[in-house]
Specification:
Elements lengths: L1 E10 L3 E2 L5 E9 L3 E9 L8 E9 L8 E4 L14 E5 L2 H11 L4 H7 L3 E15 L7 E2 L5 E2 L7 E10 L8 E4 L3 H9 L3 H4 L2 H4 L7 E9 L7 E10 L1
Parallel strand pairs: 4-6
Antiparallel strand pairs: 1-3, 1-5, 2-3, 3-4, 5-6, 5-7, 8-11, 8-13, 9-10, 11-12, 13-14
């Protein structure tokens, strides 16, 4: 099936697959199909936030979540896969704000109860922190010789505690790991812990002049566990 109106809303920090491919999970929204997850995708793909793309997809048999798809030929045509993605536009600021406000009617609890695995929530942000993973940094090498860390190789991981607006039915606040590409890129570049923590300043979490939305999604093997895929924001 061809999706020709997919608006990219976020992508996670890459993971190394068992066969040596370095892959990114991308999530977005289609007016025709709703929320979409595409995996695996190349780290060099044009599936960047706010791009509108046209791409031919098929169901991912290894991921039975209804929002999950993969690009046709993702395994056998991996080296030329990006050529199958056509950027047909880019959402402007006004359209971005209108889309976020329209889609942010979810809460993590409502997503769970409806069996949905992707959604957009409006958060009442309580706190944030970098949690120690207890791991020593490591670097994974792909089949192409590219050397990069995966999320599990970072000594620290960003977490955000929040409640969903306008009302949250959860008994306690959500505390979810942030897996956004840009956040991990910042942490990866900084050697000092105090500068790594500035990732939260970059996201404008404490800035009341900025409106924030969280794109959240669950794990394929832990359906009740949700993560923050991206922090979408704009100045009021």
């Amino acid at each position: 099936m061809k999706i020709d109106d997919l608006i990219i809303l976020g992508r996670s920090w890459p993971e190394l697959l068992r066969d040596g491919r370095y892959s990114v999970c991308v999530a977005g929204y289609s007016e025709k199909l709703g929320f979409i997850r595409i995996y695996p995708t190349s780290i060099f793909s044009p599936l960047k936030t706010w791009n509108i793309v046209s791409v031919e997809v098929e169901k991912n048999k290894s991921d039975m979540r209804k929002e999950s798809w993969k690009i046709v030929g993702s395994k056998n045509e991996w080296t030329t896969l990006d050529k199958k993605i056509k950027v047909v536009g880019n959402l402007g600021r006004k359209e971005r704000i209108e889309l976020l406000k329209r889609l942010a009617a979810d809460s993590t609890e409502s997503l769970r109860s409806k069996g949905r695995t992707l959604g957009l929530v409006k958060p009442d942000i309580i706190s944030w922190e970098l949690k120690d993973s207890g791991l020593e940094p490591a670097i994974q090498t792909t089949l192409t010789g590219l050397k990069l860390k995966t999320k599990k190789d970072f000594k620290v991981k960003p977490y955000i505690k929040y409640r969903c607006l306008p009302s949250c039915s959860a008994k306690s606040p959500h505390q979810q790991q942030l897996i956004e590409w840009g956040a991990y890129m910042w942490i990866n570049k900084q050697k000092d812990r105090k500068y790594q923590e500035k990732v939260f300043d970059n996201l404008r979490l404490a800035d009341s002049e900025w409106e924030k939305y969280f794109l959240v999604g669950n794990l394929a093997h832990k359906r009740k566990t949700f993560m923050i895929i991206s922090v979408l924001r704009f100045k009021k």
